[in-house]
Amino acid sequence: MAVQAKCARWFMLMLVLLIAVTLVSCGSKNKKPTVVKPPVVRVEPSDVYTDAGLQLLEKGQYDDADREFAWALTKNPKNARAAIGRSIARIYQGDYDEALDDLKSGCKYAKQNEDKVFCQVARIRIYTKDKRDKRWFLKAKEAFDTATKIDPQNSDAYFYMGFAFRDSLNFDEAGKMFREVIAINDRHVKEAEIQADRIQKIQGAMASTKTGRTIALADRITRADCAAIIVEEIKLEKNLRRQDPNAAPVTDKTKDKKVEKGKATAKDIAEHPFRVHIEEVLTLGIKGLTKYPDGSFRPEEGVNRAAYAVIMEDILERLTGNTELKKPFQGTPSPFPDVKADYPYYEAVMVVTSRGIMEKKNANEDTFAPLAPLSGAEALLIARKLKEDLKIN
Q1: Where are the alpha helices (DSSP H) in 168-292?
Q2: Which of 253, 251, 248 is nearest to 264 (CA)?
Q3: Which structural domains are found in the chain, ordered by start?
Q4: Is the confidence at residue 180, as pLDDT, over 80?
Q5: Does residue 183 register a pLDDT over 60?
Q6: Closest by CA position to 299, among listed 329, 271, 261
Q7: Span 321-350, mean pLDDT?
Q8: Torsions phi, psi of 297, nearest 5?
Q9: Sorting pLDDT into bands at 50, 70 and 90, what band is 393?
Q10: pLDDT tens digit string along 266-319?
Q11: 287 CB-side CA count, 13 A
């Protein structure tokens, strides 16, 4: 019996030990592992000044962008994007030499491809805006080629090269650039659509001279622009002389194009690039383009649609030899709610619209919009329609 009792005690002891070991083992399996925290890595904050400058640059707030970039460069003089961004901001403020200095500095520190492309796009923008260098377009094209070699789908490069082609009067290539921006469908899409449409209108105007193609870029034509269109695009003097070969020439055709003594002039056009054109128009006495009582011509004064209609109607009378073109419209009701029959320009508007030389301002409206400005492309298109109407070159 004693032996049996002793064995029972040993059995119970071993059972307790087994249970204890099992519990310890299970507990170790269910115990959560110790979490080892990674070392703290300090990340430098993004350059808020450069970021702000780039955003302001996009909005056209060049003074504010310049300030942000200046602060960024105070913090880090080797900040490539800040220096390049500041060069763009400065060129739009007219600080050409400072802009070129910043561009040189920024491009020097441009190491990443993104910064290198940004540098080349800035070159395109600055050379197109500056133009003091006669090789400005070639330099802009070289920058474009470099940018697109690094990033063939860079919208900025195509967008700003479109303006370079436009300003060099290569409208075909300008249109291609803007259409490429639309195809890439990344940045500047809406602006590119507007510019592509504008280029199409300029091409539709079919200006035949360099002066005409330059005027085609104007958002709003001036009295001086009108004079140039009459002289170079309509060639009024030349066509009038065809009617009367014995008529004396209006201007002296010397190499320096000086106007003959005694010809009409104005006191405020001596230094104007279209001086000769203005003096020829003054000599002809074109309605709407005569001198003001104080002897001035006011070459930079804008011309609205009503005034242009008067000018075109007077040219029609001269080239057709018919001084009664307006007679059929005297006392007739106006088809335009914004051009009353008693307005001084009513009959002129009716003459040009009845012949299809000018049209309603908008196809979906009946208004003529007499006080609305005319773009260069619109004015040239009207001049072309006048020539087609009269079958003249």
Answers
A1: 171-184, 189-205, 210-215, 223-228, 236-243, 275-284
A2: 251
A3: 48-162 (1.25.40.10), 212-390 (no CATH)
A4: yes
A5: yes
A6: 271
A7: 96
A8: -105, -25
A9: confident
A10: 999 999 999 999 999 999 999 999 999 999 999 999 999 999 999 999 999 999
A11: 16
How far does Cα 302 stand from its chain's mean position?
A: 20
Radius of gyration of the chain, Cα coordinates, nearest whole angstrom? 37
Find, among 63, 155, 65, 143, the residue nearest to 110 by Cα: 143
Q: How far is CA 114 from CA 145, 147, 260, 323, in A?
A: 15, 10, 59, 66
Q: How many CB atoms lie within 10 A of CB 300?
A: 11
Task: Supply the DSSP symbol for 231.
Answer: I
Q: Is the dihedral of CA 84, 90, 96, 102 positive or negative?
A: negative
Alpha carbon distance 291, 302 (integer Å): 15
Q: Judge contact between 376 and 221, C-beta under 8 A.
A: yes
Helix (H, G, I), strand (E, B) or coil at 264: coil
Q: Which residues pair with 222 in a beta bridge?
A: 302
Both tokens of 258, joined, read 């000086």
Q: Which two tokens stand for residue 102?
A: 């910043």
Measured distance CA(329)–CA(326) in Å, rounded:
6
Convert the pLDDT of each residue in 65-109 to its tens digit: 999 999 999 999 999 999 999 999 999 999 999 999 999 999 999
Task: Give percent helix, percent strand, percent coil of the chain, each to the nearest 5.
Answer: 60, 0, 40
Structure confidence by residue, pLDDT tens digits, 109-168: 999 999 999 999 999 999 999 999 999 999 999 999 999 999 999 999 999 999 999 999
Q: How many residues does the chain have?
A: 393
DSSP 8-state secondary structure symbol assigned to residue 343: S
Dihedral angle computed from the Cα positions of residues 243, 246, 251 and 255, in that order, rounded to the nearest 10 degrees: 110
DSSP notation for 114-135: HHHHHHHHHHHHHHHHH--STT
Question: Looking at residue 230, what DSSP letter applies?
Answer: I
Looking at residue 249, its pLDDT comes to: 55
Structure confidence at residue 13 (pLDDT): 54
260: left (phi over 0), alpha (psi -120 to 50) or beta: beta
From 386, 382, 352, 388, select the one nearest 215 (Cα to Cα): 382
- Cα distance from N-terminal residue to C-terminal residue, the chain: 141
